[in-house]
Amino acid sequence: MNEKMKMPKKKLNFSALGRIIKLLRTFYPRLLYVIMFCLLFSSVTAAIPSLFTQNVIEDIEVWMVSRDWESAKEVILPKVMLLIGIYLVSISAIILQTQLMAYLTQGFLSKMRCTLFERMQNLPIKYFDTNKHGDIMSHYTNDIDTLRQLVSQAFPSLFNSIIIVTCVFVIMLYFSIPMTLLVLVGVSVMLIMSRKIAGGSSKYFIRQQKAVGKTEGYIQEIMNGQKVVKVFSRENQCIEDFDKINDALYEDSKRAHAYANVLGPIINNIGNVLYVLMAVVGGLYLLSGLPNISLSGKAFSISILIPFLNMTKQFTGNINQVSQQFNSIVMGVAGAQRVFDVMDMEPEADDGYVTLVNAAYNSNGELVEADHRTGIWAWKHPHGDGTVTYTLLSGDVRLDDVDFGYTEEKTVLHNITLFAEPGQKVAFVGATGAGKTTITNLINRFYDIADGKIRYDGININKIRKSDLRRSLGIVLQDTNLFTGSVMDNIRYGRLDATDEECIAAARLVGADDFITRLPAGYETELVNNGSNLSQGQRQLIAIARAAVADPPVMIMDEATSSIDTRTEAIVQKGMDKLMEGRTVFIIAHRLSTVMNSDVIMVLDKGRIIERGNHEKLIAEKGTYYQLYTGAFELE
Fold this sequence. Notes:
The chain is of the alpha/beta class. It has three domains: 15-343, ABC transporter transmembrane region fold (Up-down Bundle), CATH 1.20.1560; 355-392, no CATH class; 397-630, P-loop containing nucleotide triphosphate hydrolases (Rossmann fold, 3-Layer(aba) Sandwich), CATH 3.40.50.300. It contains 21 helices and 16 strands. It has helices spanning 15-27, 29-47, 49-66, 69-121, 125-130, 133-175, 177-224, 226-231, 235-288, 302-324, 326-343, 436-443, 466-471, 487-492, 500-509, 513-516, 536-550, 566-580, 592-595, 615-621, 624-630, and strands at 355-361, 367-369, 377-382, 388-392, 397-404, 413-420, 425-430, 451-456, 459-460, 473-476, 485-486, 526-527, 554-558, 584-588, 600-605, 608-613. The strands form four sheets. Strands 10-13-14-7-15-16 form a six-stranded mixed beta sheet, with helices on both faces. The longest helix is centred in the middle third of the chain and has 54 residues, at 235-288. The protein is elongated.
């Protein structure tokens, strides 16, 4: 749990091919079989000409002796016409197969992206905290794209070659077993060479995919921090760092493709040598008059040698065709392995069974579940004896001797004990890294505690289903995230069933309505690139309005006004005061003016609470908070 959630280091595992095929069968069971039938038909058709050639040559040999062309035509022409008819049907099958393959490939990639996205949504926050966003994006672009060539080209080519090689091999045995054994010796050399070259290439292909993810991660990081790069004039340093990462990608890609690209010419030339060898041996075989061992029982003749040479070329050619797809196969496996690594990661654990429901009071004054929104929420707590109890959601949060560390080696919170009664405002102050945000992350269960208890309305939060727990909490972060869409959409993100009127009321409450109505399209103004067309303060106001429309009983304000200027802060503070009325509020702030009117102020240092009390009490004690307030140490 406390280990870094990075991609496990693995060797290239070709079992991923079987998993891809299994997914194809799951997504498109009938379509896959239709495509396989078309491939099978066209592959068998490709092997048939050898039989026709042998029969036609035999007929020609007979005609050359008898010189009876009219009789020969009656025998040869029907065979030729039949072969032409088979080829026409085969062409139709190939056209159908390619069209269906395009549909299956793009549909498969779409479903893979959807499946990956769904699995990723269930991963814990720690995964996103410990992996670069550009590398995560690479799974959806580069890694998924490698499957396109694998499914659309490599798989059909592989299947087609296996069928043709099998058919040709059987026909070879039918014509001549000794000549077939000689072909197998040459093919064995080809396979040995393929295996050696493939072994050197596969490790570089998986390194290439990781290097691509690292490169995209760096680019995404620099693009997001471009203003910082410009301010500190670090363009040249960024170029140097990128060159190093890009050079590593170049080296891995060069070695991977150098191995893979040399495979085709080697296999092709071994096939050419084998073809010449078969011609020489076949000629000697004819001259020697040795008996032929075959399934057909026919003597070795020119009518067997000529199609046998064609089959040799066809046999080695299909082996070479498979080698040509080696790049696509290995890259696809490398990309699939990275995608499957994410899919196989343990999802965020959630064994909670207490849920949040709409509630109402019946005629007896008892709290019961309601089937519509009432404005009253309750925790629905099923018990082992089959009974169900309802606890009013009031916002009572208590931490009891809580210890926590992001890793087992380093504990960042020590024996944290605090409580926030319904309607209280609890503020956390302290230096950066003291543990303020970490406490709120534990209340949200973004991370689970190592020891101690956290109770919400008297219920251990481990028993509360995470989605319901987080639905009861409103949070405004220092780093604002706005999504592509209108201003209204971004406010409604806090509660999707909120009406336009409720969203506007939330904006007015926090003081955002004034600037929103002055935007070009008001609440329908489109926001892009995280609201880059707005000021930082305006973006923060929309984030606060989004929390307000959710109307939760507990609010977490993590540096909520840190990005707002003093004048704007005075405006929004009035709205925030109304927003916080009757709610349990946790406030994290560097500006002590923001926390002065809190009911309880917790002063943290190195993961421990060193002082607690209201503003007047802490000033009277003349401790750390007093030094902060009087300017001996200024946090703001």
